[in-house]
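note to self — DONT lose this again. spent like an hour looking for the file last time. sequence + predicted structure for the chain T wanted, 404 res
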Amino acid sequence: MGLVVQKFGGSSVADVDRIKHVAKRVMDTHEAGDAVVVVVSALGDTTDDLIQLALQITPQPSDREMDVLMSTGEQISIALLSMAIHAMGHDAISFTGPQLDIVTDSAHRKARILSVDPTRIRRALDQDHIVIVAGFQGRDADENITTLGRGGSDTTAVALAAVLEAPVCEIYTDVDGVYTADPRIVPDARKIPVMHADEMLEMASAGSQVMNARAVEFAKKYGVPLHIRSSFAPDTGTLVTDKAEELDEVPVRGVSLDRADSKITIRQVPDRPGVSARLFTALSEADVNVDMIIQNVAEGEKADISFTVNKDDLNRAMTVCEALLSDIGGQALAADSDIAKVSIVGAGMAERSGVAAVMFSALGDAGVNIEMIATSEIKTSCIVRAWQAEEATRVVHAAFALGG
């Protein structure tokens, strides 16, 4: 008997009919001879609804209490799915993250998994149970409930696949794989059958909503192959692997669009050693993740520093910057949420020259101004105006002939 870890997102369990559909897919896998561990997200928009409920109480709810609140969504899902499997004639048992000793750090609302104890899962599997696990949650060393941030159920599934040594982790979602771009924006985007884990990691960090970046990082670190596929169709999806022999060599694998960032600019900062270190150390200590950074050429021994953060971290980041503004000698502070990030990703970029130039030329020809640029070996990202983001995605996609 093999072992399969399956993860179903919120859209896959959005209502009773879909929960029953997932139960049938899980049962089919088990009846084919595999032991099954299933990780589920909260039903539909439950997490967003809970956040809005909290904001009606207070505009600044405690992060600890938000974790207590948001973790309830997955608890509903696991109980209902377990009931559905029982109704179909097989034993299932549900567990929350804390029940399985999924131990995290104490960074509420974006905790990182430190360890997982597989003992209770293995015992349940030995008793021929289908195991249903609440994604997105764990506990810290002080027994506080923690959550793993947006897409955290992916991370839970990959962590379980790693500790259980499962041969694959199946990620079921409302799309049938990873595409060269979002098909809702680029009509001729095509499905990618196989991609390297490094490419998937960069696409996820660049805004592709198919997979959580931290989950892909986990999969890459522990060598867990991912199969991203549709909850609603039996088709093969996208295999994410680190086996280079399975990959074709192309300079650009796909184009990602991320609307989740905001830009902060600190104007007229003294151009002297240590200023940037003080600023970004303070942001790090406040658990603010900074993505892109640019500092202009100093004029009159003054410079502007701009950087991007996730919109969810904007208020926290602005609070840090306001507290430091006078200490670092800055003259003004501004936030801009009317931006988007367009990125190209491809393992072949590392060995091809002129790839970024093609992207910049396509954007320039379309009248899209580039405000910030960041590069890595296999990714180039550009910050553009939000109202030009979709057109920018289409012209870059066409420039690399990625269409079907």
